[in-house]
Structure prediction request, 123 residues.
Amino acid sequence: MRRLALDGYPVGLTIAPIMPVDDWRTAYGALIAAVEAAVEGVPDLDLTAELITHRFTPGSKEVLLGWYPRTRLEMDEEARSRKRGKFGAVKYVYPASLMADLRTWFENEIARRLPTCRVLYWT
Prediction:
C-alpha cells in the first residue's frame, strides 16, 4: 500500500468482514494503526475505505455449513435482523443498535488515525 501511495496511485482499504468478536476494537484498531503507519508521510495521499459487516443469506449459510460443518462462525438468525434486498432476497445482518455501534467506532477511528481517508460505504 505504501509503495503504491508513494508512487502517486490511489489506494483503497477494504475491511471485511467486520464482526463484533471478543475485543474487536483492539483487533480492528491494530489493523487501522498498521494502515496509519504504512501511509505515514505520503504526500497527497488518496485513500478510500470500504467497510463491510458480516452478513449471510440462507443459501450462503447452507453452503458454508456444508463446507465447514464444525465452523464457529456466528450465523444465528435469531440474533440477527432480517433484511430484504432490492429483489426481495433475505439476508441476516446485525441488529440496528449493534450496527450503529460498529459504524460509529469505525468512522471515528478512521477519522482520527487516517484523516484524509474517504469512507466510500458502510454495509
Notes: Helices lie at 2-6, 24-39, 58-67, 96-113. The first helix runs from residue 2 to 6. The mean pLDDT is 97.
